[in-house]
Amino acid sequence: MKLAFAGKGGVGKTSVTSWMADWLARNGHNVWMIDADTALSLGQASGLDPESLPLPIISRKDLVHERIHEGGFLNLNPDVGDLPDDLAVDIPLSSKPLPGIIPGRKRLLVMGGLTNAGGGCACDANALLKAILAHVVMDSDDCVLVDLEAGVEHLGRGTVTYVDGLVVVTEPSLRSFQTASDVGRMGLELGLDNQAMVINRYMGGIPPDLPHLPKWYTTIPPLAGLVERQMMDGNVLSLPESDEIDIILEQLVKQMGL
Ligand SMILES: Nc1ncnc2c1ncn2[C@@H]1O[C@H](COP(=O)(O)OP(=O)(O)OP(=O)(O)O)[C@@H](O)[C@H]1O
Ligand SMILES: [Mg+2]
């Protein structure tokens, strides 16, 4: 299962990605979390200290030079098979797996923004990101969850060509649903019809009748435990509401086809 998470700014993309990755690993799946957001928040949301966050790959000039400008030539299709293992950090699971389940590995790759990665930009750092993403998504049997930057423009071919599902995260507000509708349409245009919507901070009501909103959706209520914690801590795992979140995530994972 290889999923991208997209939606308007601040709606909860990173939180949902983090919850799903942890659920999958606790249930025995190996997971790659790909932070494709310039804000680099997926590690923190998963409980990593800011000091332990790896340098974003996009800022690794040494690597870009070594792989893309190999031997003085421009190689936009570099061999990157060794890089995901070398560059990823292991993230501990939030709690013990269920009895009888061997937990999976949860690993984080911090890209630093996939902007234009598939948009015909010949920028060398983007070529490296694109090659690494393609490698992780296509050549691995593990689950891959890509947390995208806010908006729709980042839902470029570079990311979506490789994933097999799109999770559209939204808040219960018209503007957020409008972005969700744009995201859904762009996903469909790129051939991605395995889509689900997560309405975060949901308190009731029916979603507006906008075109291209994913038909299937689930909801997450405002989480008092998270509201209380987030002033001091970016970690969204191990909340008082974690059992409730697990049930929602299990439904979402099944819907996406695992
Ligand atoms: N259901 C919820 N209840 C309360 N707080 C929430 C809930 N979901 C997310 N949050 C909080 O809302 C804030 C934004 O969430 P998050 O970072 O996951 O959004 P995002 O869509 O990834 O944002 P960005 O567009 O900036 O990347 C965080 O502080 C998070 O802790
Ligand atoms: Mg985010």
Kindly describe this structure.
- By secondary structure, the chain is of the alpha/beta class.
- It has a single domain, classed as P-loop containing nucleotide triphosphate hydrolases (Rossmann fold), CATH 3.40.50.300.
- The protein is built from nine helices and eight strands.
- It has an eight-stranded mixed beta sheet with strand order 3-4-2-5-1-6-7-8, with helices on both faces.
- Strand 6, helix 7 and strand 7 form a beta-alpha-beta unit.
- Helix 1 packs across helix 9 and helix 3 crosses helix 5.
- The chain binds adenosine-5'-triphosphate and magnesium ion.
- Magnesium ion binds next to helix 1.
Features:
alpha/beta; 8 strands; 9 helices; binds adenosine-5'-triphosphate; 258 residues; globular; Rossmann fold
